[in-house]
Amino acid sequence: MQIKRHGISIGMERMNSDFFLYIKAIGQLTHEDYEHITPLLEYALAGVKKQQVRMLIDLRDFEGWGLHAIWDELKLTLKHGNEFYRIAVLGDEGWQELATKVGGWFVSGEVRYFEKQHKAMDWLSQALEKESKKSGTGKELAFSTHS
Description:
Largest sheet: 5 strands, mixed
Number of helices: 4
């Protein structure tokens, strides 16, 4: 019997003294996955003091969504799309780049697609450096992923 993994891992990482939210999608996501994932993600976002989250989404092991899961993703994005400052999407397939562009329409912050993790992290770090210089602090919550 072959086991098929699917779901989302949510984590928080530090890069020096800066925090990032990390999300890694695996397999094909279903409506049932979102029933479990949504409360976890909302809990993680509830702890954000300043709604300027930085996140890295790793789609390298992601295969797509089931039909109902697409609707779940859209609802989640519409609800929380204003909370993100920068989202770096890490992938390795053309459709993932297209999905990133479409998803960016529903997010108030910058969204960019990358094929190399170090380039995604450099881009997120640049945002932190700019914010640090403006506000005098670089210790705001953000999301990131390292595999």
